[in-house]
Amino acid sequence: MTPVKSLTFTTLYPNAIQPRHGIFVETRLRHLVASGDVVTRVVAPVPWFPTTHQAFGRYADLARVPPKEVRHGIEIVHPRFPLIPKVGMTVAPGLLAAAMLPVLQRVIHEGYDFDVLDAHYFYPDGVAAAWLAERLHKPLVITARGTDLNLIPQHFLPRKMIQWAAEKAGAMITVCQALKETLIQLGVNADKVTVLRNGVNLQLFHPINREEMRRRLGLNHITLLSVGHLIERKGHDIAIRALTELPQTRLIIAGDGEEEGALRQLSAALGVAERVVFLGALPQDKLAHYYGAVDALVLASSREGWANVLLEAMACGTPVIASNVWGTPEVVAAPEAGILMPERTPRGLVLAFNALFANYPAHEATRLYAERFSWDDTTTGQKELFARVAGRQAKSSMA
Fold it and tell me: Which domains are seen in the chain, by residue range?
């Protein structure tokens, strides 16, 4: 049977200027395409911005994103769409859809008449994709990933639009059971929702010579690693505050973002600045070195769908300390994986730290736990879902 043709539609996708932006979408897609049963092209819209002048910071980065590129053999276009910061939340899906309709029509006209529109992130992307799928008469699959369901539906109009898009979709994917339950609570038919959790790249993230890497990185004390954008919901401040009760412990923070200045000031105010290292954002290969060298990963987020950093650390043999939110208990589900914080506070982190190090798992056991989470099952589930939504199974049974 010929491969299913999908068109991946998402504003969350890496590009030459933002190589880690939405990398979880790209990683899942690469494994799917590698199966040979699905081919794809990617439409990854980027908000329009008028200048590349560095004075405008991350907004100028948007203007530098190339209009087209090829990553890992996959063709990607980055068309622009209007976005009104702060005040444009309710109109964002409509603006995105209107700007992308001629783009998708051109893709079809040029010969790529796709079978399935594969949208990632429910709002605004999934809502816009539902509008586009209806006008192009294409079946639609929407993947929910976290904040699109555990935060945005708190707003009345976005919630109504998400419910409308869910009704229009042929199928939906969630990366954890907790997000599926949220869709059900929004009135979505459970039979339309499939849980396909993210996997981990077991080749990239693997155990290393831990002692040698610790020497190379200058790690001489118990060291924690906190990874993620420097934004409030990631809870880096909780890890910093916990250091006041962990006097022999160091903290490394990998990531960049708007909260860096505040986090540095907090470290200084608490008298722990000399024990906190800010690395900035790291490419995945370098991040793997830190995963493999530290004693534990800390993830103190207030919201997570399926946090890839947890499995990445475990694949390197390093256990985790994580807040008990959303899909995280589905990832940290055995002692060898790590431990959940009893409460999302500095004290909760300290309690979890003490419990972990009182019964610290073997690094080999943590790695074996991570090996349960290859991408194979997720890829198989996607292939079957896309074939069904595209009508391939029905056509095959009639042949």
Answer: 4-199+375-392 (3.40.50.2000), 210-372 (3.40.50.2000)
